[in-house]
Amino acid sequence: MTAYFLITTSLALLNLIILIFTFETRKINYYFMVLMLLMVLANSGYLSIALSTSVQEAVLANKLCYLGGCFLPLINVFLICAICNYNVSAWLRAIMYSYSFIVYAMVLTVGFDDFYYKTVFLDSYGDASVLDHTYGPGHVFFYVILYGYMVVQLFLLIYSIVKKRAVSRKYLWALILMEIFNISLFIAGRTINPAIEIMPVAYVVDGWFLLYVYQRGMMYSIEDNIVASVRKQETYGYIMFDSHLNYLGCNSMALKIFPKLSDCVIDWSIRNFPELKVLLEWLEDYSANDSGNFSYECEEKHYECHVKKLWYRKKARGYMLELREDTDKWKYMNLLLSYNSELERAKEEAENANRAKSQFLARMSHEIRTPVNAVMGMNEMILRESSEESVRSYAQDIKNSSAELLNLINEILDSSKIESGKMEITEGNYEIGSLLNDLYNMIQVRAKEKGLNLIFDIDLSIPVEYYGDDRKIRQVLLNLLTNAVKYTVQGTVTLKVRCRMEGENATLHYSVKDTGIGIQKEDMEKIYDAFARVDTVKNRDVEGTGLGMNIVRQFLKLMGSELQIQSEYEKGSEFSFDIVQKIVNEKPLGDFRDRFSVTLDEDRYQPGYLAPEAKILIVDDYQMNRKVFKGLLKPTQIQVYEAESGRECLNMLKVQSIDLVFLDHIMQEMDGIETLHVIKENKLCENVPIIMLTANAIVGDREKYLNEGFDDFLSKPIIPEKLDKMILHYLPGKCIVNKDSVETEAQLPKKQENQLEQLRKRLPEINFETGLATCCQDEDFYLELLKDFTELSMKEELTKYNQDKDYKNYCIRIHGFKNNAYSIGAKTMGDLAYEMEKLTRERFPEEVNLLRKYLFEQYDNVCRIYNEITRQ
What we know:
Layout: H1 2-21, H2 27-51, H3 55-83, H4 90-108, E1 117-125, E2 128-135, H5 139-163, H6 169-192, H7 199-220, H8 222-225, E3 236-242, E4 247-250, H9 252-257, H10 277-289, E5 293-298, E6 301-312, E7 315-325, H11 327-337, H12 340-385, H13 389-420, E8 428-431, H14 432-449, E9 453-458, E10 463-468, H15 470-486, E11 492-502, E12 505-514, H16 548-558, E13 564-568, E14 572-588, H17 592-596, E15 615-619, H18 623-633, E16 639-643, H19 646-655, E17 660-663, H20 672-682, E18 690-694, H21 701-708, E19 712-715, H22 720-730, H23 753-762, H24 768-774, H25 779-790, H26 794-804, H27 807-824, H28 827-840, H29 847-870
Parallel strand pairs: 9-11, 15-16, 15-17, 17-18, 18-19
Antiparallel strand pairs: 1-2, 3-4, 3-7, 5-6, 6-7, 8-10, 10-14, 11-12, 12-14, 13-14
Helix pairs in contact: 1-2, 1-7, 2-3, 2-7, 3-4, 3-5, 4-5, 5-6, 6-7, 12-13, 12-18, 13-16, 14-15, 15-16, 19-20, 23-29, 25-29, 26-27, 27-28, 28-29
């Protein structure tokens, strides 16, 4: 029997511990806590009696047991009143507490007086002690507590089931079952064997019932599951449901919106109320689509409804509907919706304008970069191969002007990147001396033309090498210096550089000062407006896009800096900024001009590597681009293979091993991206880098090409240094050899003056000076280019595309022919091709066929005369 009391006491204690660990601070929850504690005390008293060895010990243990017995029924009544929302007045509570204390005081007299127990003596049952006793008159008062409170509890619970709709039926029935269980167990214990105390088991099972009611009650409580604003009854309406869509409760505001809720009973399914079908639809829609926002109209009022999950102990237990009146907002929205069509039109117009801008940038980038690529490439050949000082000087001027033209293109593209938020910082090691030297060389020509004094005031002690984004710093300084020269009629333009070292970092101070026209105060902010100009009367002859200062500010912001401006109108301006860079080499710079200024002869290009065994494939439908590419790589002795289409590229890769592929994007029939995918699918050159070489360089192009599978991206015009760097990066190391171990190339064949003179006489429609300028005055190169032009399959391809109604490739092919015609100086044919290209971009009118007839006639004439002369 001792084990029985020990087990029941342990289980009662376990119930208390579970409650402690799940306890949440609410007034009603303290009743659960006190009940559990009293059950533990009562069972501990029964256990102590069983372990007693004397009457005195048993009497003391009996008093501990009664501590639970006297107060358990009382607290249980208060709990049921709280659950069922019955208000017990303070004076009645005081009487009930007092009565229980008086009864317990009578219990405390046991052992000293015979009023409660007439006699007590110690007996045993099995291995447990039992306190036998005979009742005195005072024990009657305990029966009032025991049976009276039991009747009160049953009455309250049954009445609540009948009358109370806002109380959960589930835990009302749980409490009734607990009372029935206690009564049944008590009667059974007294009938079967009065010596066996049955109440310890009752207290354990009662604890289980109470834990269930506690858990359910916590979930059902509107007050604690809804934010404090719920209590403001006239602001929001709240309705709660469990996970089975059973009604859990609502507040008064919800009752005003849905009066039928007053008929709902807690734990009843909402499906039983057709009038509340809309609530069911919201909940089911939320469960299916996880979309919890709805609208509801009632009596000319509009409500915004939001469904969200009802969480309890990190687990979704049901749903809560929040209803908020927004009638005024709804009226405003209806008013706004009346203008919806107009707004849609405005939006469509804006999107069309943006698309037109993007298309313009894409076409401008490609159309301008393609010829600029040829100009810069051929000019590079002059600088590399010409030995005449005057020619090289002119070529150097062309190089500087081309760089400015390319900078103008990049400004527009940079502006587009800034607008789209895709401009990023690209950092690396750089020498500040090289940066300053490039700036000086680019600015001095223009300054000299205007008779300005260009001063570079550089602190000789600043470190020579840094880590940062030198391209953006170069762009900022170039824009500031270019503006200073533009807006200065006479005087000086000064670049000052100072440095303050702080550990591993240096704060570089750049300042550009001029003696120009200055800026009026009212125009100070306008200088940052894209495509805007200030003081247009005075500056009407000044060239530029108006983008430079906007780009300067955005670039500095990206690098954590800000432009400072000091200006006095008609006296000059000073633009300065500070930028923090990591120091890579602390060696003092010294005089950068002594270090970097060299003569044109000393600056003659010398390849930094030789790779006679390397095989590179250039795929481009524009022949001049392939010529430029081959010319740039000529000093490296790399074997350059050519393909003018994606199909020809695939055929070549099937029979020829290649170390590196440069692939153009826009080509007829199969563009560069499609060609790459076929290469990958057929595994034609596994582990061979494939680089996108294109004149497209607008926002997102680089990322687009890399995502398609290209290993890298090189934009046109081709910058020789970037081409060399990329080739060295991707070529296998075994292909690079020592320059001294390779024999120099033989001289090119002598020029064939006789053929060229005959062509001049018989083809007056061709401007040979233009063609030769394109080929850097290399007559052999020009004749080779002319030969390639006469062997084009343009006529057959255009005829086929016309028959197949493949107007897209028709446009691409005529675009390539146009560039070829302009390259050899055949302007008339180039203009005809240009008109055909424009007509076929969006449609294919009848005029194209007429233009094609004229074009074929002129082309046939050139081919016939060329073949007659060259076959003699």
